[in-house]
């Protein structure tokens, strides 16, 4: 067996120094927290969002000042995705080698009442968006080959694994993200791009706001830790999965749920 370097005693504090990380949905919630944690870890961050103003606001929250950039991207639209990838490459001087697919929408509704439009909105942003951005990212990285260690983290959801009442389109889109993660992981590992995903439970973000008192109380009963999560608690796991500290993890689905739906 080949000897490998002992890294246990040489843990760097900046795990992502020198890397370029692109985050979709970086203008809010979990995506914004990912941008903050990745910047703290030393990455140059490309904050993308359909809402450019929100992405620019995230920039103001990042340590490391002017090295970071904000770019508009609608993940549903192939040409918007490709233009944003090119713009990121031009502004950073190299292709991003780290990607967080976080842009998402939640359109609820019972299966018997779900119309084609709300079904399509969930699928277009959450699943097709993840596919389009991953494809453009991997194509750009492999064409330019400026960093031999790519990594992708997809933000799925625990309900993509379990299903949940009154959210059929959303759960199907996130179940699709889980299986897309595994296929991308299998195809891209040999090209030195690791792909994994995170399954958050109930996290306090604008997407989750507006729950009634009753539904919040019901929710708490399902979470062994007895509280909802903070966006940065997801972002810390994302940073780990993007870093070389997780160098043997491929196609994994990591649950960040406070124990909900184990
Ligand atoms: N909050 C939770 O409890 C929770 C739980 C599980 C999974 N998630 C997932 O985490 C991700 C982030 O969710 P959040 O809670 O931070 O939500 P959020 O609403 O705070 O942020 C979502 C971001 O995505 C952006 N976005 C929406 N449509 C887009 C598009 N077409 N192109 C580009 N950007 C677009 C929005 O502008 C927004 O900035 C989503 O994929 C969501 O499904 C959230």
Helix-and-strand structural type? alpha/beta
Which fold name fills CATH's third level, the topology?
Rossmann fold
Ligand species: nicotinamide-adenine-dinucleotide
CATH architecture: 3-Layer(aba) Sandwich
Q: What's the overall average pLDDT, rounded?
A: 94
Cα-atom Rg, whole angstroms?
Answer: 18 Å
Spans with pLDDT under 50 lasting ≥5 residues? none
Tell me the name of the CATH homologous superfamily: NAD(P)-binding Rossmann-like Domain
CATH level 1 class label: Alpha Beta
Structure description:
This protein has a single domain, classed as NAD(P)-binding Rossmann-like Domain (Rossmann fold, 3-Layer(aba) Sandwich). The N and C termini lie far apart (36 Å). It is an alpha/beta fold and 262 residues long. The radius of gyration is 18 Å and the shape is globular. α1 links the parallel β1 and β2. A 7-stranded parallel sheet has the order 3-2-1-4-5-6-7, with helices on both faces. 47% of the residues are buried. Nicotinamide-adenine-dinucleotide binds next to α1 and α4.
